[in-house]
Structures are given as C-alpha cells and as structure tokens.
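User: For documentation purposes, I need each entry recorded in a consistent format: the amino acid sequence on its own, followed directly by the corresponding structure tokens. There are two entries in this batch. Please keep commentary to a minimum and don't merge the entries.

Assistant: Recorded as requested. Entry 1:
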Amino acid sequence: MTPKEYQNYLKEKFIEIFPTVDVYAEKGLETQQYNIYSPRLDVIVGPLAIDKRLIQEYDSMMEDYRNFIDGLIRIHNRNVSEFDSSIPTLRFEEVRNFNENSRCFISIEIENNISRKHLIGGAINASGLGRVGIFLPWSDDKFQAMLKLVAYFNFLKRVKNNSYELRNLLIVKREQMTDFISDYSTE
C-alpha cells in the first residue's frame, strides 16, 4: 500500500469508527480570512472548529471514544518507554485537557519522505490542530526520528530551555494502527 492508499484506508476506517462526524483525507483547515499558513493534514476527524470553539463537543467525544483513545495512548506509551524510559508517559486526562481549543477532534500526519525539519512541522501541526494528534511514521527510520524528537523536546523541558509541548501527540506505527483499528472496528 502506498502512503496515499493508506491515507484513504484510514479515512474509510475512521468513517466506520466515527459515523456521526465528518472525516477528511488530505484536508487543510482553511484560514484565508486570517491570511496565515494553513497546513494540510493527512486525515482529520471532525467536526471542524475553524472560526468557533467546540470544546464541550470534543470533551464529549473524548468520553464517548475513551476506549479508542486509551488504546492509542497505551500503544504510544509502550513505543516511547521502549525507546527512552525517561520520557514521561501520557495519561488520558492529560491528552483530553491539553489542547482543549483545538481545530478538530483527531489530526493525523503520515510521514514518509521528509526531512527532520519537516518532521518537526508535522508533529507541531498534528499536536496544535487536533485535540488528539497522531503521528504515523511510514518507515522505521521516521519512527526512530520522531522518538528522538520527543526525547529532544523532553530534554529541553527538563533542563528548563524553551521547548514545545507534545502532550496530545501519539506516536503510532502504521502496523500498530492497522491492527488496532481492525480490532476496534470489530468490537
């Protein structure tokens, strides 16, 4: 499967899992009225909060889909702790409350042939725009690079340097996501 085919596969699976909201593939969160950069995310689970706040709606969705989000958090925590045990694990409450005024419920970035600088941009976009951000590395080298980025941000925070918080960004391998959503959609 190519990254584009996988993106469409995820969109279809997420439509099954989230039947009452819009799910988009390769969608930008248009902000033309502000004349600012508008990133295109690979997969978005709505509803979209472009010019409004949907804090209570996303809070309700977090509770309604708690098992789903908790499962992804467990995968993320396992990935991170196997890489570097000094990186703090995430808890559901932390993810739920971190980016309350997000622009969408879930934002997914599938990262394939990109530089480390673009990797940072993808991580910031997924974390900044989604109540739950998911970073889905296409290859093991992108997976390792993302784990190193999280460790680097953690180091900067630990030594009291300026850093970026990624407390709602879940790093999930493609195989892990495929297995998880296949199992979840059959429950």
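Entry 2:
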Amino acid sequence: MNHTIKIFSPATVANVACGFDVLGFALETPGDVISVSITDVPGITIRNEVTGLNMPLDPDKNTTTVAIKAYLEYLKSSQAKASAELISVLKGIKGIEVVFHEKIKPGSGVGSSSASAAAGVFGLNELFGKPLTKVQLVEFAMQGERAACGAAHADNVAPAMLGGFTLVRSYSPLDIVTIPYPQDLFVALVHPQIEVRTEDARKVLPKEIKLTDAVQQWGNVAGLVAGLMKGDHALIGRSLQDVIVEPARSPLIPGYHAAKQAAMDAGALGCNISGSGPSMFALCSTRAIAQAVSQAMSQTFTQAGIDNHVYVSGINADGVRVMN
C-alpha cells in the first residue's frame, strides 16, 4: 500500500443561479493541492504550507479532517462490511497527516471548504485501494461542509468529487445526478477581494417565498438542465435567472449589478453569484468571450476601487484526482 498521495481538488460554482443548494459545476482552475499520508505519528495532524493563509489545525475543526474522520468511522463500522484485508489495514494505522500545498481562499464563494473535504476523503480512499466509489464519498465530504458552515449541503461537494455539472435530486436519501453539458461552455469568474461568510449569506435568505416566484424558479431550473443536456446555449442563458436568492444576496457584493451588466454586454450567456459570493460567474459560449467577459467584470470592480482576481476556465469533467 502507498503511504502518501497528492490530490488536486477543483473549485466549484454552486447554485448556478436558479438551483439553490441543488446545482453545481466544477472548474479547471483554481483548486486545492493536498497530500494525504499514513504515518507513524499517532492521531490526525495537519500541516499548512500555504503562505499567508490561516486555517484550523485542530482536526475537529478543519473541513478536510472532519470529513476524513467521518469516512474512517464508517469503514470501521459493521455497516461498511469492509474486507478482512482492509480491516487489518485500518487496525494497523497509527496516524494520518494532511498537508496543504495550495488552497482556494476561504470565503471566496467557489467551494473552498468543499474542495478540501473532497480531497481528504478521496485521497485516503485511494490509499486504501478504493473501497468506496466517488459517489459514496460525497456523503462523508458533506460532513466537512457541516463543520464549515453548519449545513451538510452537497451542491459544491458533488461537482468537486465527480466533476462536470451535478444535480442533488434528494438529500434524504442522498441522490446525486450528473448532467451532460456542451463541451464548448466556458466560465468567466471574478473574485472581488472581500469576504462573504456563508453563515452570513444564509441569514439574509427569505423565510417565505411567493408561489409565483417558486413557479418561475422551478421553470428556470428545469430549463437550465434541459439546456445543458440539449447543448442549447440560448436556453441555458434564458434559464440563468434567480428570482429568490440573488435579490437577497446581491446587496452583500458592492458593485454587483454593474459587474453583471458588464458581463452581459460583453456577450455572456448569463451571470450570477457563485455560491454564497462574493465571487461572480458567467457562462459563455467560447473561451474568447469568457476572456472578454472576465475583463469587463474586473474593470467594473477596479473602477469601484475593489481589488479583484479573475479566472477563465473550461468545465472540469473529472473532479478530484490524483496528481502525477
């Protein structure tokens, strides 16, 4: 059995406008790079090699190790029905070390906690000989999300683990559906250098929804899924509308509406908040358009005196993976 493995885990865009807590997709860049090792040092230890980034080093508070602990507890339970060989391996393990080499900035709205949680359980599962599938690992990575924001949602974790576009059809029981999508779809992403905490972004959500808004939102979700599966860019664009969450959260992002208008004027199919923000994403029909859109959004924030980072990416089809 190998004792160390290095993992890349992608950033993700959750909600995808109309699909609050149920839709998400994976990006090619940015992402986390994490090593997982089986060691002779008792317990679970965390080492941070990312300059200028603070993170919890307590294994009960770090999303990666919380997910790992949930995964280990399951394997040791009778429910897992682990093989005799794996049970022997589990009994022989003294410690596990997690090393962060690169890290998505927390609070950026592109699945920082999800990438870490997915990387941890995926890496350990690889070291153990893949006793569980990627789909099965999603549930344990969700426990890392619970530690990060108090809710074990899967709209970031599922695409980080599986790649592409994913739909959480149900949380009880967990039912993840992968959605075909056109290969000529590109993403412009701008990250204004402000922080929007997921907990704070959830506090502003409406407690009640008008039936007319709910009906419009359901139509947009169905339209977006149909547009992705049909490769219909126009339908994708018409469906990237959010009449429930965007109105509540957009005031948390200074300059949001100006940046969105700039994206649409530059040729984006649609533009919205990435996850809980402050990052914004725009889906585009070519990489060249995505480049233009990213610069247009960036310029509006720069003119408003807000520092920002931009990314242009294809859709990551693979999700979390072993690095050579």
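Summary note for entry 2:
Residues 4-179+317-322 form a domain with the Ribosomal Protein S5; domain 2 fold (CATH 3.30.230.10).
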